[in-house]
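Structure tokens please, single chain.
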Amino acid sequence: MSANTKRREDARKQAEKIAAKQASSDNRTRNILILIIAAVIALLVVAGIVLYKQSQRTPLSDFEGTAPAAADTHGGIAFSDQGVGVVGSGPVVQVYVDFLCPICGDFEEVNGADLVELVEAGTATVVYHPVNFLDRYSQGTAYSTRAANAFVTVAEDAPDQALDFMTALFEQQPAENTTGLTDEEIAGIAVDAGVPQEVADTFGDLTYGDWVDAASQQATRDGVTGTPSVVINGTPLDTKKYNWTQPGVLRDHIEELAG
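Here you go.
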């Protein structure tokens, strides 16, 4: 082999070594970049999940007091043919009520029996949200909170009587700017509606009073500005189109949605 040929061969081999080394270096760099990109994507996914979970938290998510097991994290207690605290089939009807609100009394008078029948027939789930927006109109006795607490207590400890108790509370609803009913009077109404005496006797303990406060804050956060408010399948009821003050209108609308 001539000297020139040997030099060319040595140069070729050296070039191949440099190329192989460069290729190896490029592969390492590419692998590192892939790992970095994968790690960034994973972090973004985790961050997205964390942010989503945080966005779904409510004042009740972090509530540390006594909460009714039957309630959801938006302050609602579901009534369906599957039981209290269970969302059944058909449209989900959210109803926000304040037991001192006179218009809520009207709502109950016009629609209460219809809603009970829809629940019992399995046509719809009705989720009641008892709030205390009108506490300031009970001369310092916090009637809205006390009545809501009583309703929640019955829903929790005597669920079969809860809706009858709600009806009876509205039938004997006190006027705004009065002290409202006493705990003893509320308990008497409950017992007459079939609630066991031992359950009614706990109303004065205000077991769920703090929870009612938190649930009312959540209602405000969810966009509820007054009572009664009705939301069906996540959409506020169009009261101009479906005037619930007319008997049967709300029921017909729910049944139509149920198909």
